[in-house]
Structure formats: structure tokens, C-alpha cells
UniProtKB/TrEMBL annotation, chain A:
Transmembrane segment boundaries: none
Cross-referenced InterPro entries: Tscrpt_reg_PadR_N, WH-like_DNA-bd_sf, WH_DNA-bd_sf
One family name in Pfam for this protein: PadR
Highest rank taxon of the organism: Bacteria
Signal sequence coordinates: none
Source lineage: Bacteria, Pseudomonadati, Bacteroidota, Cytophagia, Cytophagales
Domain Transcription regulator PadR N-terminal intervals: 15-88
Database matches in Gene3D superfamilies: Winged helix-like DNA-binding domain superfamily/Winged helix DNA-binding domain (1.10.10.10)
Protein name: PadR family transcriptional regulator
Automatic annotation (TrEMBL), chain B:
Protein name: ABC transporter permease
PANTHER family: ABC-TYPE MACROLIDE FAMILY EXPORT SYSTEM PERMEASE COMPONENT 2, MEMBRANE COMPONENT OF TRANSPORTER-RELATED
Location in the cell: Cell membrane
Transmembrane segments: 101-125, 374-397, 431-452, 472-497, 518-538, 778-802, 830-849, 864-887
Keywords: Cell membrane, Membrane, Transmembrane, Transmembrane helix
Biological classification of the source: Bacteria, Pseudomonadati, Bacteroidota, Cytophagia, Cytophagales
This protein's GO CC annotations: plasma membrane
Molecular function GO terms recorded: transmembrane transporter activity
Domain MacB-like periplasmic core: 103-325, 525-711
Length: 111, 901
């Protein structure tokens, strides 16, 4: 496995893009993450993470339609690229392998 | 959903400004959407609170960073507003073309104003950039010595040898030094053809060529003063001596030394250089002389004019302090006296040396040319005023014609023009007029420059090769003029309501009218002040030239004594001169009244008196002096001959100073004389010169009329203070060239190498006031131009007023008014303005001219007729301008003016 340059927040954002596809853009991602984590997430932070992900080639973007609640402005929609998908799978595989190696007694203790 | 109110607008503006343009849409959209969401979920207060933090989260480099500009310019290849710009220009040209008379008046006024401004500006620029041609000018400083003794205070541009020599060695701030000394005048001649010229002799160190960048034509400009017996000359002298400028390696004969080798030929000095030497001899040439050895030992003398080159960023104050400390550590000063040094920037020498005595020169070396800061300021103000008057003209005419354009403005406004559109349009119009006037003015300036240069003794030019700063300032002036003259009409005309404009088609704006009147008053005030100033200046110069000076200056010919042979043969020469048919009287003197070189001063005291010695001027003269100059002897007797070698005659001022009423051979002592700025004993033994007073002469003006007649001692020609230096002959007015030729023959018999150098005393005296005469001429021209421009404006206003009141005039005519009646009606308003202007101008002019006249110890009084003449002249000119239009309007057949309605 190649060394991942995916930060934790970036990983979550990337996962959210995949989950919300094909209607993923910064506001819904931020709302979704807030709901999932319970912490407040600013669109600014999400926007910046998406910029970084796009630079690395994990997501691609295009301008969508204008809507009234945006004051007639268009939104930028994101989709996970093939490379991004592979990276997500890699990360998941690493985690899974490690999870499987944890002693079942220990898992019971945590619950 | 919309309807929940808006987030604080200024925060949105802030992020809009902060965010890179290409991200703006999505970022603002996100913010807006999320705010709406929060409003729905949490209510407006909470939403606003979170909006804040949300916006702050966007303050990060990846959002702020702009995309490279190239992409933007591809997106917007042209400014989007060229259409309007083109329209502004088109309308401007159409309007200007339609009203040819007004355009012509405006352009004429503005181009005259700008011409005046440019000419004065060029002159001032030249004066203000003196000595800046040297590349290290900003680091070069002149040493100024401040000496204080119990009896005198002296500030002199000179230093001692030791200070000049040791300071660069021991003071870290100083990089290099140069010094010059101007010892007097001597003959330089070409050994082959005996072309001989008398020139001021300057001795200089090699540093002179290392500090300053004198351009060379031939030879090495850096090392030419290293060797003894070398000389550098300027090209003009090279031409005179050798008829060539490629003369490096040739020798010149030098009257007071061995022949000198020419090591470099310099270009002539530019006119804006303080240096005017024709030749510099290397200091090494005289460094083994006995006199020189005296100089080299001294710390506290004032033998050299010294320049220091400071290191980059070195502070001149610190350097000067260190020089003073160096001096204190080494010199033994008399009790109660002190010496300190300051450093004067090279570029300040021309304008800021009023209070500084120029040192290190012999009394017969002319001083460096000086500029006058006061007149620079006066001229700068005058230039600005002329330009301002031209601007006012434009404003006046443009606002006066506002109602003619009211329809245009109204229609534009009705069609949706914003106020700034109209402002832009009027400013464009004024800029077009100013630019046309400016181009015309540049052409006129170039036509006038040859005459102007001759008049100011400068080499000014305005062309592609001029200093970029001249063009920069000119362009700034151009834009300022355009905006200033356009701004008032632009703001005024654009402020009217379109409804009123289209309904009434007539503007009744009282405030506007009174401002226009105010501007006319201002113009004429300045014109009248300038006229009065011109008259006063003219009268004062006349007064100076015609005043009875206490001697008769007409037909006095002064011949310089330029060699020791001629000096010792003076008695023979005097006899020979007086035999020449055209010569009535001959006198030999050390200095003459109206002297252009320095008249020495001495300290003087009555014998046995314990008072501090007083200061008096000193002129050595012979027994013919009083008769030749026609000076009146009041008491006592004249000199009789050699037996009077210890007798002196005083002028009234000196007699009064010494409390001498009757002449009875009172004994006076002269302990010391001025040398390089301080008083030194007459001889080594410190023996005073004791003399008897044998006569008193009536005061006569031996200096310019700016000075009060000072105490003066006339000593016999052989005296220990000052040798004779001139023959003065009272000649007859006819065939002066023949008289001169005969005089030359007499001199040549005594000394074949002697050069005849002569002056007419009345011409020399006129030179005291040459600058005033020049200023007078300049003022006359400026006054004429101001009044002419003011009249152009008045003419335009009168034309306009006549046009406006054409119906009124028609009605009045029908009811029986005569032409005279109507002319008075139309002229009255304008005459009132000119009269008010006179009222303001008189006190201003009275104050200003009195200030100026107080500079002269002897001056005219400002009299009422000077005001009357100027006032009447202004009224007459204004009347002539206005009445032409008034009469024309009054003569129009009323049928024509009343028919159409």
C-alpha cells in the first residue's frame, strides 16, 4: 500500500462526498458532518478540504444549477474520482485488517 | 427560504472583497444558503451569530489567493467603458466646434497662462537644481567655519589646511576631501603666439576631480591635478589661447610661476553650476612656497574652501561635530573665542548662502553667483497666480453659458445619466481644452525661449531632451489645470434637477452669479497689484540710476592695474594719461566708488581712546581723487603729495563715528585690517598705523543704494593697508576708442605684457540694479499677460450678458432708451467689479511694495499717483473691453430681437 497523504478531516469529507453523491456540495457536506459527529462544522473548512482533495485528484467538480436559497448563485458539485475511490478502499482495508487482529476479549471490554 | 432577513451586509461585503473573484460565486452562495438554513432551524439571532464564525472560517490563504491576472485579461479584453469615453470626447469636440468664439477665448487665455507658467517654471527648475549634475552631489558638503571672538562673529565658507587635511584621515564618516583657494588674478599665455589672458587663479587638490564630475574633452579627468606644475582649463579658455580644444600636453606660461603643463581640458561649466573657474592649477605647484608653509601649519585659519565627500548614509551633523572636536583637540585658541564647523550640502550653496561669507579668495576675485530664495518664492507665486487666473476664466465662461446647455443636461438626465456621467463629460471637455492650450503653449515657449534665455542668462530648453522631471511637473500642472478649471462647472451644472432644466430652460442662480463676480474681482485684484508693483519697481530703478551719488559718475573710465610694473610706474602713467587729448583728470586709487570687488575694512580708533576700535572702509587715493570724482571736500585740505603718506581724509559718517567735528590733525590709529573674514594686525610686530586727520569729505555712495553710507577712510595712495589698483580718468565724451588706444600705448610702454582692462563706472553702477531691472521687465510682461487674460474673460462675460439681456434691451429701446443709456446699463455691473478689485488691490500692493523698498537704504516713497494710474488704467481697459459688446448690443434693431416670440 502506498503512503497515504489523506488527513483525517479530508478522509471524512471524502467519505461524505461518496455518501452524498451525486448531490455533494459544501453546505450539505457540512450539515451532514455536523449531524454525524455532533460538532459544528463550518463550510469554510469543508470548502478548503475539498479544494485540497481536488488538487490531489481524489475528487472532481463542476458548477451546478442556481437556486433561490443561494441568492441565485450556482453551487459547485463534487464527485469522487477513480483514484479517490481506490484510496478510500485502501484506507478502509488497512483499518479492517487491524480491526480483525484485535483480541475479541478486548473488544468485549470496550463495550 | 428567502424572507428571513439578510445577514449583516458589511460582513458580506467584507468576504466579497476578501475572496478571490473566481471563488466568489460559490463561496457567497454557500454562505447565503447556510444562513437561510440556520434561520429556519435556529432563528435569526442564532443564525447571525453563527454567520460570523462561518465567514471567519473563510479567512484562509486558499480562498484569498487570486488567480494569475492573465486569465482575467483574457476574460475582459477591453475596458467596458470605452463607449462612454468615446462619447465624451465626441461631444466635447462638437461643443467646442459649435461655440468658436468661446473656445478661442478659452484657448487663448489658457495657453497664455500656461506659457507664462512654463517659462517661469523652467527658470525656477534651473535655479532649484543647481549643482546637481555631480553624481555624488548628495554626499558632498562644504565646510563652514563659525568663529566667535569677543568682538566679532563670523560664518565663513572656509577651513584651515590642517582641518582639510586631517579630517578625512581621522574621521570615519568622511571618505574624501577637496579644497580650492583663489589667490587672485594672473596672466596665462600661449608661449608660441603670446595670446595672453588675465584669469582668476584657482589652486586645487587632486580631490577636486575625484569628488566632482567635471566632464572632460581631452585628458584624464581624475588624475590631472596630481602632479606639480599642471593645469586644467575649460574648453572656452583653450579656444581663446590655442584655437583648439585638443591641447593636453602643451604648456602655458604663467605669470607668477614656472610654465604649466595642460593635463586636461574640461567642458564649459553648465549654467546651473556654482563653479565658474576657467582654470585650476594643481596645489602641488605651490606647496613648496614660503607662503604656503604658513598655511599648512594652521588649524584655525580660513585659507581654503573645503569640500568633504561623506560615506553613504553618514550623518553630516555627526561628521561636523567630529571636525569641531578634532579642531578643539589640536588648535590653541585665544581666550574667549571659539570655532566650530558645520557642513553645508553642495546643492544648498546656490540658494542658502545668504548669511555665509565666501572665504578663501583674494579681494579681487569675484564671488560665486548666488540665487535669491525670496525672488524664487515670489516668482513661483506669480506663476501660480497667472495659471489660476486662466483657470478662473474658463470657470467663468463655462458657468455663464450653463443655461445654453441646460437642455442638453436635462435630456441627458432624463435619459438616465447619473451625476458622475455629467461630471465626467464636463471634465473631459475642460481637459480637451487644456490639452490643446498646453500643446500651443509648448510651441509658444519654444519660440520665446531664445529671447528668454538671453534675458535671464540661462540655457533653458523645453524639448524631448529636457529633464524628465520637467515633463512630469508639466503634466501634473496640465491635469491640475484641467481638473481645477473643469471642476466647478462640472459639479455645478450636474447638480440641477432635470425637471427644472427642461421646464424653465433658464437658470436663475444667484449664488452662482456672485461667485462669478468674485472670480472677476480676484482676477482684477491680481492684475492691479502687479501693475502697481511694476510702476514702483520701475521708479526705484530709475531713482537708483539717477540719484546724486555724491560724485559725478558720468564719463569716468576705470583702468585696472594688472602688473607690478604698471603699479610702480603709476606716477609716470598718470602724467602720460593726462596729456592725452580726451582725458581731463586722472586719479590712482585702490578701490573706486561703485566698486565691484571687495572694499577692504579696517579697525580704527582715535589715539588715547580706550573704546573698542570701530570698523571703517578703506580706500587709498591720491591728491587728484576729489577733483576727478568731483567729491566735495567739506573741511580741512586735500592731500599734497608724498609728505601726506601718514594723513587720512574721513567721510562724514566716519567723522561722526569718531566724534570729530573740526579738523585739527587729530591722531588716529589703525591696529588691524580684515583678512579672510577676521581682523589681523597690519604687520608682524603688531605696530598700528598712526595717521593724522587732515580733511573731511561729503558723504558719497561708494556702495549700492541698498547699503547705508558707511564710515570710510581715504588714505594716501602709499599706505600699509591697500595698494593702488586702478587709474580713473575723467574723459570727454567724444572719440572714446581713440582715447582708449592711446591709453593702451602708454601702458604698453611701461609693461609690454600688460592687458588693458577697463570699465565705465556708470555701467558698473547700473550692474548693481541689473537684477532689479530684469525683474521689472519680467513683472511688466506678467502684468500685461494677467490683465490680458482677465480681459478675455471679461469680454466673454460681457458678450454673454448682452446675449442674455437682448430682449430687455429691445424693450428699453422701444420705450425710448438711447445708445448711451444702454451702454452705461450694460457696463455698469462690470465696472463695479473692477472698482471693488481696486479697493482690495491698493492696500495689498501698498504693503508688498513697502516691504520690497525697505530692502534699500535709499528708496523712493510709494505715492498716491502710482495707485491712481494703475486703477484708472484697469478701469479703462475693462471699460474698453465691455463697452464694445455693450455698444454692439445697444445698436441692434429692436425689431430683430423682439420679433421671435
Amino acid at each position: 500500500m502506498r503512503r497515504s497523504d489523506l488527513g483525517e478531516f479530508e478522509e471524512v469529507v471524502l467519505l461524505a462526498v461518496a455518501a452524498l453523491s451525486p448531490k455533494a456540495y459544501s453546505v450539505v457536506i457540512a450539515e451532514e458532518l455536523e449531524r454525524e459527529t455532533g460538532n459544528s462544522v463550518s463550510t469554510g473548512a469543508v470548502h478548503a478540504a475539498l479544494q485540497r482533495l481536488e488538487q490531489k485528484g481524489y475528487v472532481s467538480s463542476f458548477l451546478g444549477e442556481a437556486t433561490a436559497e443561494r441568492g441565485g448563485r450556482r453551487k459547485r458539485l463534487f464527485t469522487v474520482s477513480a483514484l479517490g475511490g481506490r484510496i478510500l478502499q485502501d484506507v478502509r482495508a488497512v483499518r479492517n485488517r487491524l480491526w480483525e487482529r484485535i483480541d475479541s476479549h478486548l473488544l468485549l471490554d470496550w463495550q | 427560504m428567502p424572507g428571513h432577513g439578510h445577514p449583516p451586509k458589511w460582513i458580506t461585503r467584507f468576504i466579497e472583497w476578501l475572496c478571490a473573484p473566481h471563488l466568489r460565486e460559490e463561496v457567497l452562495g454557500d454562505l447565503h444558503e447556510r444562513y437561510e438554513l440556520w434561520c429556519a432551524q435556529l432563528g435569526q439571532a442564532q443564525a447571525q451569530h453563527r454567520y460570523w464564525r462561518e465567514v471567519l472560517a473563510y479567512v484562509r490563504p486558499s480562498i484569498i489567493k487570486r488567480q494569475p491576472v492573465i486569465q482575467r485579461s483574457v476574460k475582459f479584453p477591453n475596458p467596458t467603458t470605452t463607449d462612454m469615453l468615446r462619447n465624451y470626447f465626441k461631444i466635447s469636440f462638437r461643443t467646442l466646434g459649435r461655440h468658436k468664439l468661446y473656445t478661442a477665448l478659452n484657448v487663448a487665455g489658457l495657453s497664455l497662462g500656461i506659457t507664462c507658467f512654463l517659462l517661469i517654471g523652467l527658470y525656477l527648475f534651473d535655479e532649484l537644481t543647481f549643482d546637481q549634475q555631480h553624481s555624488r552631489a548628495s554626499r558632498i558638503y562644504r565646510a563652514i567655519q563659525h568663529k566667535k571672538t569677543p568682538t566679532e562673529e563670523l560664518t565663513i565658507a572656509a577651513s584651515s589646511y590642517k582641518v582639510a587635511e586631517e579630517a578625512p584621515k581621522s574621521i570615519g564618516e568622511i571618505e574624501n576631501s577637496a579644497r580650492i583657494v583663489r589667490t587672485g588674478r594672473a596672466n596665462l599665455s600661449n608661449p608660441e603666439n603670446k595670446n595672453t589672458f588675465q584669469e582668476t587663479v584657482t589652486f586645487g587638490t587632486p580631490g577636486v576631480l575625484k569628488l566632482f564630475d567635471f566632464e572632460t574633452i581631452d585628458g584624464d579627468g581624475r588624475s590631472a591635478l596630481n602632479e606639480p606644475n599642471s593645469i586644467i582649463i575649460v574648453e572656452e579658455l583653450a579656444q581663446r589661447l590655442f584655437n583648439s580644444t585638443q591641447v593636453v600636453g602643451r604648456t602655458v606660461d604663467f605669470e607668477i610661476n614656472k610654465p604649466l603643463k595642460i593635463t586636461a581640458v574640461l567642458k564649459n561649466h553648465p549654467r546651473n553650476s556654482s563653479f565658474d573657474f576657467k582654470a585650476i592649477v594643481s596645489e602641488a605647484t605651490i606647496s613648496s612656497d614660503k607662503d604656503f608653509a604658513e598655511w599648512t601649519a594652521s588649524w584655525d585659519s580660513q585659507s581654503f574652501m573645503t569640500f568633504f565627500l561623506l560615506k553613504e548614509k553618514a550623518s553630516p551633523e555627526v561628521a561636523a561635530k567630529k571636525i569641531t572636536d578634532l579642531l578643539k583637540a589640536n588648535a590653541k585658541l585665544e581666550a574667549g573665542s571659539s570655532i566650530s564647523y558645520t557642513l553645508q550640502p553642495l546643492t544648498d550653496i546656490h540658494l542658502f548662502s545668504d548669511t555665509i561669507t565666501e572665504g578663501a579668495r583674494n579681494g579681487n576675485v569675484e564671488a560665486m553667483s548666488q540665487g535669491s530664495l525670496l525672488y524664487i518664492k515670489i516668482f513661483a507665486i506669480v506663476a501660480l497666480f497667472v495659471l489660476l487666473i486662466a483657470c478662473i476664466n474658463y470657470m467663468n465662461l463655462a458657468t455663464a453659458r450653463a443655461s445654453n446647455r441646460s437642455k442638453e443636461i436635462g435630456v441627458r438626465k432624463a435619459n438616465g445619466a447619473f451625476r458622475y456621467h455629467l461630471i465626467n463629460q464636463f471634465l473631459t471637455e475642460s481637459l480637451v481644452v487644456t490639452t490643446i492650450s498646453f500643446l500651443l503653449a509648448v510651441a509658444i515657449v519654444n519660440l520665446l525661449l531664445p529671447a528668454f534665455n538671453e534675458f535671464t542668462h540661462k540655457e533653458l530648453s523645453l524639448g524631448i531632451h529636457s529633464d524628465y522631471r520637467i515633463w512630469l511637473y508639466s503634466l501634473i500642472a496640465l491635469f491640475a489645470t484641467g481638473l481645477l478649471s473643469g471642476s466647478y462647472p462640472a459639479f455645478l451644472l450636474s447638480s440641477f434637477s432635470p425637471l427644472l432644466l427642461l421646464k424653465n430652460l433658464k437658470l436663475q442662480n444667484r449664488g452662482d452669479l456672485s461667485l462669478r463676480k468674485g472670480l472677476v474681482v480676484f482676477q482684477f485684484t491680481i492684475s492691479v497689484v502687479m501693475m502697481i508693483a511694476t510702476i514702483v519697481l520701475f521708479q526705484q530703478v530709475q531713482f537708483a540710476n539717477n540719484k546724486n551719488l555724491g560724485f559725478n559718475k558720468k564719463l569716468l573710465l576705470v583702468v585696472d592695474i594688472n602688473s607690478s610694473k604698471v603699479r610702480s610706474g603709476a606716477e609716470t602713467i598718470k602724467t602720460e594719461f593726462s596729456r592725452i587729448a580726451g582725458v581731463k583728470q586722472v586719479s590712482a586709487t585702490s578701490r573706486v566708488p561703485g566698486e565691484w570687488k571687495i572694499i577692504p575694512t579696517v579697525q580704527i580708533n582715535t589715539e588715547g581712546s580706550s573704546n573698542e576700535p570701530k570698523v571703517a572702509y578703506w580706500i587709498g587715493a591720491d591728491e587728484n581723487f576729489a577733483r576727478t570724482f568731483e567729491v566735495q571736500l567739506l573741511k580741512g585740505r586735500n592731500f599734497n603729495g608724498m609728505s601726506d603718506s601718514t594723513s587720512v581724509i574721513l567721510n562724514e559718517a566716519a567723522a561722526k563715528m569718531l566724534n570729530i567735528r573740526e579738523v585739527s590733525g587729530q591722531r588716529i590709529g589703525i591696529p588691524s585690517r580684515a583678512m579672510g573674514g577676521s581682523y589681523r594686525p597690519l604687520n608682524k610686530d603688531n605696530q598700528p598705523f598712526n595717521a593724522r586727520v587732515i580733511g573731511i569729505v561729503k558723504d558719497f555712495h561708494f556702495q549700492s543704494l541698498r547699503e547705508k553710507i558707511a564710515p570710510m577712510v581715504l588714505a594716501y595712495q602709499r599706505n600699509p593697508v591697500h595698494n593702488i589698483d586702478y587709474f580713473t580718468a575723467r574723459i570727454e565724451g567724444k572719440d572714446i576708442p581713440a582715447t582708449l588706444a592711446q591709453m593702451n600705448d602708454v601702458l604698453a610702454k611701461i609693461d609690454p605684457t600688460h592687458l588693458l582692462e577697463y570699465h565705465f563706472l556708470d555701467e558698473q553702477l547700473a550692474r548693481f540694479y541689473a537684477e532689479d531691472q530684469r525683474r521689472e521687465t519680467l513683472l511688466i510682461w506678467v502684468a500685461l499677460i494677467t490683465i490680458f487674460i482677465a480681459c478675455l474673460g471679461l469680454f466673454g462675460l460681457a458678450t454673454y450678458a448682452a446675449e442674455q439681456r437682448i430682449k430687455e434691451i429691445g424693450v428699453r429701446k422701444v420705450l425710448g432708451a438711447g445708445v448711451m443709456n444702454l451702454t452705461v446699463l450694460l457696463s455698469k455691473d462690470f465696472l463695479k467689479l473692477v472698482l471693488i478689485a481696486n479697493g482690495i488691490a491698493f492696500p495689498v500692493a501698498w504693503w508688498a511694495t513697502n516691504e520690497w523698498l525697505n530692502d534699500f537704504a535709499y528708496h523712493i516713497q510709494v505715492e498716491w499717483w502710482m495707485f491712481a494710474v494703475s486703477g484708472v488704467l484697469a478701469v479703462a481697459i475693462a471699460l474698453a473691453t465691455v463697452s464694445y459688446q455693450a455698444i454692439k448690443a445697444a445698436l441692434v434693431n429692436p425689431v430683430r430681437s423682439l420679433r421671435s416670440e
